[in-house]
Amino acid sequence: MNHPWISKRMEYFDSSGIRKVFDLAASMTDPINLSIGQPDFAVPEPVQEAAVRAMHDGKNGYTPTQGIGPLREALQDCVESQYNHARRQVFVTSGTSGGLVLAMMALVDPGDEVIVFDPYFVMYPSLVGLVGGKSVVVDTYPDFRIDLEKVAAAITPRTKAVLFNSPGNPTGVTASEEEIRGLAQLTAERNIALVSDEIYSHYCYDEPFLSPAKFNPQTIVIDGFSKSHAVTGWRLGYAHGPAEIIQQMIKLQQYTFVCAPQPAQWAALAALKIDTTPQIDAYRKKRDRVVAALGEDYELVTPGGAFYAYPKAPWGSGDQFVLKAIENKLLIIPGHIFSDHDTHFRISYAASDETIERGLEVLKRIAHERD
Ligand code: PMP
């Protein structure tokens, strides 16, 4: 990548790892694909119908930057009934990714530090780098719990924000009330922005979802419909937080993403009325099956949410083990994509039960099969 036109910031983006797995998937016949982070169920019918209806009704143009009025009002009502914060405002973003980009751009100056937890969602360190910030990594191995003392020790005068994600990608681990409350209080006391990526909030299997916004009214929440309603391609998210910050994010959206796709925004209104309990119940069963099947041969922290499991490689590095899996047609993602460690791997069980069973069979077989 030494073309003279390419900016230095491109150094922060290395998508080669995940792309390698996706390229392999495309070249293999009948791979067992447990690498993809998107739900495998159909978009609920009323949501599809609302999108089609919007298109037929000519709702295809730009919308106000902050989203169509009815959706914004419905989201604002939801947020107010949950938190009742005087100055909490919501707007519609172009996916959760869009919301994260806007939050980082609105908050981080060159040289500012942003605390991220390792393992992290693949995008976080790159986004921090994009805006000239520095990621400060707080390790959560081996149990993927947040040690508040480590977070406190990582804070410096340059710390601007903490990026938090529970249920988490890639571990599926759900932070406890104690961790969430502690992090909320610590960031409030130290006057640091807490950005909470809540894209997996629907996927909580053991306990109801809990947001740090409950304990810290200044929390900036980034959420979206991609995972909750299986519409990853629609690019539909929303963000809420203190009005002053949200206003800045809306201003940036005007000059970048412009608005979220209009038909998808009308469909989101229908999505808000859908009960996704049956889908979540099905995913809980998948989670239980994966945990039960891998328990014997793998060190695995039971995931409480999302649709990922993050076992430790039983031999070799995470990368070596994933190569072996791929030789057996099983596509999974090596942990170093999400981490400074190369010891684990990520399974996505957002797949049919049949695919999951085939994948588990391979994992059982290769657990003791180094060569
Ligand atoms: N945050 C996390 C933790 C994710 O896993 C993902 C998607 N893989 C996103 C954000 C981005 O989601 P969206 O499709 O809404 O941009």
Structural class call reads: alpha/beta
Distinct bound molecules: 4'-deoxy-4'-aminopyridoxal-5'-phosphate
Query: How many discrete domains?
Result: 2
CATH class descriptor of the largest domain:
Alpha Beta
Q: How many DSSP E strands? A: 12
Radius of gyration: 20 Å
CATH superfamily of the largest domain: Type I PLP-dependent aspartate aminotransferase-like (Major domain)
Q: What's the order of the H and E elements?
A: HEHHEHEHEHEHEEEHHHEHEEEH
Helix content: 25-40%
Query: Helix tally?
Result: 12
CATH topology title of the largest domain: Aspartate Aminotransferase, domain 2
Q: What CATH architecture of the largest domain would you give?
A: 3-Layer(aba) Sandwich
Q: How would you describe the overall organization of this protein?
A:
With 371 residues, the protein is α/β, with parallel strands linked by helices. The chain has two domains: 8-43 and 276-366, Aspartate Aminotransferase, domain 1, CATH 3.90.1150; 61-271, Aspartate Aminotransferase, domain 2 (3-Layer(aba) Sandwich), CATH 3.40.640. It has helices at residues 16-27, 45-56, 69-83, 95-107, 123-130, 148-154, 177-189, 243-255, 262-271, 277-294, 318-327, 353-366, and strands at residues 32-33, 88-93, 113-118, 134-139, 159-165, 193-197, 220-224, 237-242, 308-309, 330-331, 333-334, 345-348. Strands 2-8-7-6-5-3-4 form a seven-stranded mixed β-sheet, with helices on both faces. A three-stranded antiparallel β-sheet has the order 9-12-11. Strands 1-10 form a two-stranded parallel sheet. The longest helix is centred in the last third of the chain and has 18 residues, at 277-294. The structure holds 4'-deoxy-4'-aminopyridoxal-5'-phosphate (PMP). 4'-deoxy-4'-aminopyridoxal-5'-phosphate (PMP) binds next to helix 4. Residues 37, 95-97, 121, 165, 169, 197, 199, 224, 226, 232, 237 line the site of 4'-deoxy-4'-aminopyridoxal-5'-phosphate (PMP).
